[in-house]
């Protein structure tokens, strides 16, 4: 986790605060003390910098705690985490596109088909977030609209121990939110991206589950019009 | 040469608009659109979204080059990852305010003023150049495409920084004067 | 759409003290009077309204009734219904209103021309009968649609029947004078008021019967529009009530566009570069009163051959002569006429006919009277003259002459016989002959060889430059007379062109296309630019009419190139804007009918019309609307409708609305604006409260709303007030009362909310400004945490 404080959670409050502090200066613009706005910084400066894992773990736990307030159930909690991740995905998409190319050339890797998009997610996005690619990418045999991205040991779950009573809860819902944001931003509307444990109960994969107790599958379900477009565009060229 | 630059969100909503003129060849960087052309520009840019949507899925390029034309208004497009559309309308005619440069439809008088001219040879010769009064201007010339590309890349850089703001929502209007200054700077530099 | 509560509905609208009213007022004052001042007529007499029937019946939001002549039911409903029914059912009823109407229009516009020449005694007899225009006036409407099926055999020997075949009866030299007039008389047509004020009355009727004048076409359509504008007030209640009903229907071809196209294609001028208007046959008629019939027929033949009526040397003079004996049923002896007829057949062969009609004048009150059908394909000048004549006449009755039912039947029989037994067979014969003798030689390898050798003979270029009338047959390698700009009719190129045109008129588009194709290269190498343009034009059109499954590749490569070349040559090399407009307008229609991706091309050619400035303000608005329709006809693929052109269509519709409003044609503007709003998804019915995405777009839309509602309000006010003396030319003063008494003014009260709709929707300050928030995104270094 190197960039982007997952900050959207407290947004309304902060925005209100922002408005308040702003009122005395009607010009509306306050420069930082060093007279440098965000626009004056190189966007690639932090490309290789890394974030302390402990700091992230602490922050993430706080995010879960924040999300957990007044939730009605596991589904609701996961939804909130998903919502926290979603704007991140939107932003990362553009940032990673910009960084994927040599400076001052327009990116040419804008994903326009499902597969390139998924590859972008499993490699570029994953590498950026977790410093390694995702472990597997599969298409559902039963439903052509569903794709599965597997992560054997999601970073987000590393320091989380789920209480027994909500054992199905997967904190990687946050990551699924990021993935959904990327898909949506790229124009591939999904009917939801969700994170699921692979483990107990799955007899066939039982051995593996031992090996990767935190193994998580991200299920991406694309909207029908995306598939339809895929077909139309595939025909057209 | 006058330019109208708009960033359009995913719901066809304008996120940012800016007008400027060329700074090359002694241009003063001021747009010379006629008053009626102001809203026409918006209409034209909006209408070219039809074309954007068509070519959008064709290639993974972000810079889609010159995609559309309406009379002598040329539209170049750049697509960001999240499908915000950078649309640059370039109108080469405004250097010569004497010629009825704008789409005749845009102004009240021009259909009327234009009509009696058709028997005269001067307008007939105009028809020779594929109907465009601005025959000298070629929107697909490598130099033009290149400078517009550079402009877009510069704006894209600033755009990503804007979008990175945790307070920026998708399809939100950008009001930052710094961003505007950035666009202006890119325009001065390349167009 | 509710009026502000503080406005008393009984108060007259201008009394509303809304701040926006001051903005509206000047426009309101100005527009209705301005638009009405340009109307030279004030009388909506019945005879006049029949002239406008082709467009007015449609303007009453009755989109399905595409008939050009009102059907009886329309008569019954219309307050302007002409008294007696006009007799023959409209020849267009069958074919119009079909989805591919423009295609039919095009098919029916390029038809064989048949000259009509009658002896003095015949003309006298018909003038007594009440036809001042003589035989031509009598038979002309009947030629436009041949009753029953007409079977034509094409070049490969298969027969095809057509129900909508027709011929055009013309005076022999009709199309000719126009050519001169449009050059020398250009000045007078440019200054429109002159040409309007009776100048047309004095000109030779043959001059009137010539088309090809864009300005006049504009004017005719403008008259129709103005008339519809006046009528619109009457039907405004009706119109508003039918809002929901009519908004659901797809954008049908506007009646004004159809009219524009028809007038554009009516009375094609006689020109060396195409032979559509060259006579295919000539009817030579004498009457039973003639003292010396055979001699008279010979004399008439002589005038067409060597005398006054000899057409210019670039017209092939060997057209078919068809001899007609007009027998006077009322006064002359049938037996005598029959024997005369038999004598005629002995002298002149089979191409003869005896037409038995009564010479007594037929009154509308007579039992078996029918009105002369109105002619669909009259030229713009003729229609203008007719409109003027009826405006100035005090006679409220329809002045169209009547004839007896038996006469009408006799004429129909005559026309059918003429076409089916003489004109078509002779055309078929000639095209087969030419195809064999000239064209097929050029199609093979040797043919290409021949044209090559022709091009590369050593003296080719020099002799071509010096070729004059004298050197035409003196060994010049090019048959083209570049000084006078034509091929002699016996030159192979001229014959080929005739072959292609005949094939086109006989609707054998395959043969036509291949022949035009050959001609293109020939004309190009001869630098016969007008011919070259013409061949390209017709090659493109016949290709579009012919090939059913046209691939995108052929379309973009050949059609585009042909249209481009034709337009370029017509406008730049030949200064023939009329033909350029014809090329583009036809190309547009035919491409549009191919739908989907071709609709884009159609729209592109449409924009070309506008950009090249080929049309006047009325045409500009009409074609803008048309381009919008082209884009609208392009439907997207799938649920996302990828590749649709809704926004473009919306833009054009909005522009059309703007142009109509500026022309003072508010009814049209309203229609176009509604169309545009529907396309943008902000129509009143569905998009309540929705706004156009861009401020400027919303602004224009609101401005238009305002202008239109102000006009609606204004026309009401205007009807109640007296006319402002400064605004109105004195000519129209006398009839102002008539407008006041019109019943429709009251009907507007039924829509009290409308005038305020625009005001209400317009915030005086842009909302954006009020809610402008300070920028929030600058201070945060979102990207950086480390």
Helix/strand structural class of chain B: alpha+beta
Which spans of chain B of ≥5 residues are poorly predicted at pLDDT below 50? 94-134
Distance between the first and last residues' Cα of chain B: 9 Å
Distinct helical segment count of chain B: 6
* Helix proportion range of chain B: 25-40%
Helix amount of chain C, in percent? 55-70%
- Total strand count of chain B, please? 5
CATH architecture of chain B: 2-Layer Sandwich
Instruction: Enumerate the strands of the largest sheet of chain B in spatial order, edge to edge or round the barrel.
Output: 2-1-5-4-3
> What is the global morphology of chain B?
globular
Q: What does it look like?
A:
The complex is a heterotrimer of chains A (237), B (191) and C (786). By secondary structure, chain A is of the alpha+beta class. Chain A has one domain: 2-Layer Sandwich (Muramoyl-pentapeptide Carboxypeptidase, domain 2). Helices cover 44% and strands 11% of the residues of chain A. Chain A has seven helices and four strands. Chain A has helices at 11-22, 53-68, 74-100, 114-130, 173-185, 206-211, 224-236, and strands spanning 136-139, 146-151, 190-197, 216-222. The longest helix of chain A has 27 residues, at 74-100. Chain A starts with 10 loop residues before the first helix and ends with a helix. With 191 residues, chain B is α+β, with helices and mostly antiparallel strands. Chain B has a single domain, classed as Beta-Lactamase. Chain B has six helices and five strands. Chain B has helices at residues 35-47, 49-55, 110-114, 121-128, 142-164, 177-190; strands at 2-8, 14-21, 63-70, 73-79, 85-91. In chain B, α5 runs antiparallel to α6. Mean pLDDT of chain B is 77; it is low at 94-134. Chain C has 786 residues and is α/β, with parallel strands linked by helices. Chain C has a domain at 12-42 and 691-721 and 740-764. In chain C, 56% of the residues lie in helices and 7% in strands. In chain C, the strands form four sheets. In chain C, strands 4-1-5-6-7 form a five-stranded parallel beta sheet, with helices on both faces. Chain C has a two-stranded antiparallel sheet with strand order 2-3. In chain C, strands 8-9 form a two-stranded antiparallel sheet. In chain C, 52% of the residues are buried. Chains A and B meet through α1 and α3 of A and α5 and α6 of B.
């Amino acid at each position: 986790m190197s960039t982007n404080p997952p900050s959207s959670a407290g947004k309304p409050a902060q925005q209100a605060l922002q408005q308040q502090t702003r009122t005395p200066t009607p010009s509306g613009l306050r420069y930082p003390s060093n007279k440098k706005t965000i626009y004056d910084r190189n966007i690639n400066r932090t490309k290789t910098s890394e974030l302390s894992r402990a700091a992230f773990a602490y922050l993430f736990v706080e995010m879960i705690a924040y999300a957990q307030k007044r939730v009605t159930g596991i589904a609701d909690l996961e939804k909130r985490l998903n919502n926290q991740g979603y704007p991140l995905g939107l932003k990362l998409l553009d940032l990673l596109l910009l960084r994927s190319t040599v400076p001052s050339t327009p990116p040419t890797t804008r994903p326009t088909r499902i597969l390139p998009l998924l590859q972008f997610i499993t490699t570029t996005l994953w590498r950026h977030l977790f410093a390694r690619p995702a472990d597997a990418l599969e298409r559902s045999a039963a439903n052509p609209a569903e794709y599965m991205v597997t992560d054997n040991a999601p970073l987000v779950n590393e320091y989380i121990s789920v209480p027994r009573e909500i054992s199905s809860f997967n904190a990687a819902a946050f990551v699924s939110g990021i993935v959904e944001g990327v898909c949506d931003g790229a124009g591939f509307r999904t009917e939801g991206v969700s994170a699921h444990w692979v483990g107990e109960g799955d007899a066939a994969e039982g051995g593996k589950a031992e090996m990767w107790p935190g193994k998580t599958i991200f299920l991406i379900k694309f909207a029908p019009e995306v598939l339809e477009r895929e077909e139309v565009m595939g025909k057209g060229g | 040469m006058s330019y109208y630059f708009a960033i359009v969100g995913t719901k066809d909503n304008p996120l940012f608009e800016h007008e400027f003129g060329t700074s090359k060849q002694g241009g003063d960087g001021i747009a010379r659109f006629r008053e009626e052309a102001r809203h026409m520009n918006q209409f034209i840019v909006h209408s070219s979204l039809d074309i954007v949507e068509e070519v959008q899925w064709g290639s993974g390029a972000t810079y889609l080059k010159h995609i559309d034309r309406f009379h002598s208004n040329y539209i170049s497009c750049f697509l960001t990852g999240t499908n915000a559309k950078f649309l640059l309308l370039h109108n080469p005619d405004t250097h010569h305010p004497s010629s009825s440069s704008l789409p005749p439809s845009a102004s009240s008088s021009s259909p009327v003023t234009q009509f009696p001219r058709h028997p005269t040879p001067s307008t007939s010769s105009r028809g020779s150049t594929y109907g465009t009064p601005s025959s000298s201007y070629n929107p697909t010339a490598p130099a033009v495409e290149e400078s517009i590309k550079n402009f877009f890349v510069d704006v894209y850089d600033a755009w990503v920084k804007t979008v990175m703001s945790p307070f920026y929502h998708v399809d939100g209007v950008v009001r930052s004067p710094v961003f505007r200054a950035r666009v202006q700077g890119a325009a001065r530099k390349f167009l | 759409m509710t009026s502000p509560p503080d406005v008393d509905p009984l108060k007259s609208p201008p009394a509303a003290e809304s701040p926006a009213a001051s903005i509206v007022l000047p426009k309101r004052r100005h527009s209705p009077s301005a638009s009405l001042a340009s109307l030279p007529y004030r009388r909506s007499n019945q005879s006049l309204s029949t002239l406008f029937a082709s467009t007015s019946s449609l303007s009453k939001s009755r989109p399905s009734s595409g008939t050009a002549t009102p059907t009886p039911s329309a008569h019954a409903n219309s307050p302007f219904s002409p008294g007696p029914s006009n007799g023959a059912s409209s020849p267009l009823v069958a074919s119009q209103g079909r989805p591919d109407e423009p295609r039919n229009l095009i098919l029916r516009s390029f038809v064989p021309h048949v000259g009509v020449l009658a002896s003095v005694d015949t003309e006298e007899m018909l003038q007594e009968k009440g036809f001042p225009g003589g035989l031509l006036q009598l038979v002309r409407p009947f030629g436009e649609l041949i009753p029953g099926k007409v079977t034509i055999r094409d070049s490969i020997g298969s027969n095809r029947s057509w129900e909508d075949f027709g011929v055009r009866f013309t005076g022999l030299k009709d199309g000719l004078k126009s050519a001169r007039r449009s050059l020398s008389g250009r000045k007078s047509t440019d200054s429109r008021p002159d040409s309007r004020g009776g100048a047309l009355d004095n000109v030779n009727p043959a001059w009137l019967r010539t088309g090809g004048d864009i300005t006049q076409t504009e004017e005719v359509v403008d008259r129709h529009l103005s008339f519809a504008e006046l009528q619109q007030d009457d039907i405004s209640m009706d119109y508003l009530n039918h809002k929901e009903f009519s908004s659901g229907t797809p954008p049908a071809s506007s009646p004004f566009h159809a009219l524009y196209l028809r007038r554009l294609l009516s009375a094609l001028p006689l020109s060396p570069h195409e032979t559509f208007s060259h006579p295919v046959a000539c009817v030579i008629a004498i009457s039973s009163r003639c003292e010396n019939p055979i001699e008279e027929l010979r004399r008439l033949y002589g005038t067409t051959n060597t005398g006054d009526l000899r057409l210019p040397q670039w017209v092939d003079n060997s057209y078919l002569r068809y001899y007609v004996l007009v027998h006077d049923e009322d006064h002359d002896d049938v037996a005598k006429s029959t024997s005369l007829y038999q004598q005629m057949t002995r002298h002149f062969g089979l191409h003869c006919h005896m037409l038995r009609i009564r010479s007594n004048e037929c009154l509308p009150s007579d039992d078996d009277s029918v009105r002369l059908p109105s002619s669909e394909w009259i030229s713009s000048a003729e229609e203008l003259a007719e409109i003027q004549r009826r405006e100035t006449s005090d006679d409220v009755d329809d002045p169209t002459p009547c004839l007896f039912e038996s006469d009408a039947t006799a004429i129909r029989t005559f026309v059918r016989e003429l076409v089916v037994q003489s004109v078509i067979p002779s055309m078929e014969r000639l095209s087969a002959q030419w195809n064999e003798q000239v064209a097929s030689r050029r199609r093979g390898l040797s043919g290409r060889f021949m044209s090559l050798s022709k091009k590369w003979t050593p003296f080719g270029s020099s002799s071509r430059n010096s070729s004059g009338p004298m050197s035409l047959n003196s060994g010049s390698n090019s048959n083209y007379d570049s000084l006078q700009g034509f091929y002699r009719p016996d030159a192979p190129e001229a014959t080929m062109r005739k072959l292609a045109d005949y094939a086109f008129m006989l609707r054998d588009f395959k043969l036509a296309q291949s022949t035009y194709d050959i001609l293109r290269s020939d004309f190009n190498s001869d630098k016969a630019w007008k011919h070259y343009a013409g061949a390209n034009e017709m090659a493109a059109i016949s290709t579009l009419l012919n090939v059913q499954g046209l691939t995108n590749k052929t379309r973009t490569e050949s059609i585009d190139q042909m249209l481009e070349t034709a337009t370029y040559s017509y406008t730049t090399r030949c200064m023939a804007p009329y033909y350029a407009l014809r090329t583009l307008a036809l190309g547009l229609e035919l491409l549009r009918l191919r739908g989907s991706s071709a609709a884009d091309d159609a729209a592109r050619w449409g924009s070309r019309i506008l950009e090249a400035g080929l049309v006047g303000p009325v045409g500009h608005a009409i074609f803008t609307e048309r381009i919008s329709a082209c884009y609208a006809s392009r439907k997207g693929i799938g649920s996302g409708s990828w590749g649709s052109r809704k926004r473009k269509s919306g833009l054009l519709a909005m522009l059309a609305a703007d142009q109509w409003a500026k022309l003072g044609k508010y009814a049209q503007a309203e229609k176009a604006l509604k169309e545009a709003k529907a396309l943008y998804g902000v129509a009143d019915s569905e998009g309540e409260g929705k706004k156009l995405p861009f401020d400027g777009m919303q602004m224009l839309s609101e401005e238009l709303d305002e202008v239109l509602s102000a006009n609606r309000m204004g026309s009401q006010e205007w009807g109640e007030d007296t006319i402002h003396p400064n605004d109105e030319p004195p000519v129209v003063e006398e009839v102002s009362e008539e407008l006041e008494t019109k019943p429709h003014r009251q009907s507007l009260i039924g829509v009290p909310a409308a005038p305020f709709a625009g005001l209400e929707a317009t915030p005086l300050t842009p909302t954006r400004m009020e809610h402008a928030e300070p920028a929030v995104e600058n201070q945060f270094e979102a990207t950086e945490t480390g």
